[in-house]
Amino acid sequence: MSNYSYIVFIPLLPLVTFIVLGLFGRKYFKISAGAIGTTSLLTSTVLSFIAARQYFFVDGKVNGIYQKIIACKYTWLEFSPNVSIDMGIIIDPISVMMLIVVTFVSLMVHVFSLGYMKGEERFATYYAFLSLFTFSMLGLVLSSNIFQVYIFWELVGVSSYLLIGYYFDKPSAVAASKKAFIVTRFADLGFLIGILILGFYGGTLDIGLLIQKLTSLQSLQWINITTASFLGVSMLTWGLVLVFIGGAGKSAMFPLHIWLPDAMEGPTPVSALIHAATMVVAGVYLVARLFPVFSMDAAALSIVTYTGAFSALLAAVIACTQTDIKRVLAYSTMSQIGYMMFALGVAKQGGENGLGYMASMFHLFTHAFFKSLLFLGAGAVIHLVHSNDMKDMGGLRKLMPVTHIAFLIACLAIAGIPPFAGFFSKEEILLAAYHSNKMIYGVALFTAALTAFYMFRLYFSIFWSKEPTLHHSHGEGTISMKLPLIILAICAVGVGFVPFSTFVTADGAVLETHTDILFSIAPVSLTIIAILLAANLYKTQNNKPERLATAFGGFYKAASRKFFVDEFYLFITQKIIFPLIGQPIAWIDKNIVDGCINLLANITGKIAGLIKGFQSGKVQSYALYFFGGIAALAVIFIYLWK
Amino acid sequence: MSDVPLSHILFVSTALFFIGMYGLFTRRNMITMLMAIELMLNSVNINFVAFNKYLFPDKLDGIFFTIFIITIAAAEAAIAIAIIINLYRSHQSIDVEDATELKF
Asked: CB contact, 8 Å: A626 with chain B?
């Protein structure tokens, strides 16, 4: 077993950067903050690639199966010899894959932000927050203890909150950051309870041990957790579903997706990093991390499947109607994460059945590249146009050729046109769905077509449609903004050819995949039809989109209002929870709880007022009381005490 | 040995004690109050010596205790006078009625 302890520096470098920039940034590193953050992250990225090379090509494999390696472990809080909260680092295919994704995308975003955020007042603070986020996310993917996951999970939530609310003088940004934090916190409550259930019955919080105990059918823990039940559902299902609720909150799955579109109030590079490539896939990662346990419970897995599929479809429909380009991308993110979720849901442990797992991780991997490319491209567009609305854009292909090509590549990738990256991963997902559940396959196919449609609606509206209205062009932006776009565009083409199934599979063994040309015909032709439709509707300015919108009537209106989910939640909270639960509780708090304490304080005050006269400050009266007391005691003890 | 009975001596010491107590309560001058306290201490000393002499003639405990109290009283007088001097420096007076800041 070779040494992986240098991996500890991958998350620690951003932490150090965060501390240095957070404490001294505004004073000493106002200009150089970006360079410092980028350099430290570049080091982390290089270390990640070294670790990946070592793991995948040198010594990760024993007898043809990739091993789980605990690189280092430090017991932090010990409750009993078995149950402890450790700070450990786990190395296995998915954590190494996530290391690459997180450091690489984060590096691209750091470089892009050098140009995008230039001249901002709180430039150093921005980089400090980015570093904090990168640290938390790396900590999350490397965690070997489920409670450690939870700690970093919350840290990720906090840094997301800080970055969404970066423009804190904008009320909408403040509201969005609060919304994101509250919704994900609400989901995290489920996660915490889920952890406690699994930890209680599993007898450990260590992920490796937990999986080992809860997957062997003879173990005492397995018998306990499957026989205990609550409301007729076994505790295993409860624990897993609650953990999944936490994951669904972070990954913006229906019905906890409402924070993601609003989170687009943050700076665009932040959206690219947090709300496209890394944090929002934490839920998928969590399910994948605990997948061996999930695969033991069909009910929990089918919840994962249907939630994922429904979210994918819902988000795709909403995305077709939005006009804010970042919101379109947000819904498309939600839709793609839905894909990853149901791919996990249709997978099973072992051999051929693990195709869905591999496909999900593959899609996570490719999605990170093309979606962050889309967001960074959108960032470049917004930087030029100073607006998020599609209607203000059009014909930009002449003004920003690099962005145009990069964006086009990303659109083709997400639509799933061969040979771009998205094609390969989406193909595996569809194949996995086809083999397990035909209905899910149908939803996935339809969503794939919708995806192509709304992405090209976006593409044509931004880059074609009409002649550019603005001529005061200050160019596409600096080299630091173009370089990430170019690199990511190359990745969006190239990563599809990574032989992913030899690296990341459910059981660590190589999975044989065979691309079936016949199977690809249906999705690819549907996608091409959708693209042609979008080109027909949006390539030139015409009134066909309006006619189409009126044809769909009420459905279009409902979709453009996001199916009233926000309004529904507002109704629930403001009309039901606040008056029926919140106000009575507030009354009890103010009158009964506070009242008891105030009563005590008042009584004490009254008594003090009565007896404070004794403390007159006159020494002789004190002496008099003293002698009086002695005399009284003398009388009592000598004459009265018999 | 002597015709003076114990009760006479106790009468003297009791009188001395209450004279001291009266002085402590009525005088406002701190030096005088200190003197009154010395009177009370000495009345206790007389008690010790007298009981030792009349009740346990073959022991010396009471006499030693008296010597001990005299020593302590000397030390206590030194500290008390130091306090009084400091009080005078801060209040320009050694009247206890003038130093009543430490109250509710």
From this structure: no
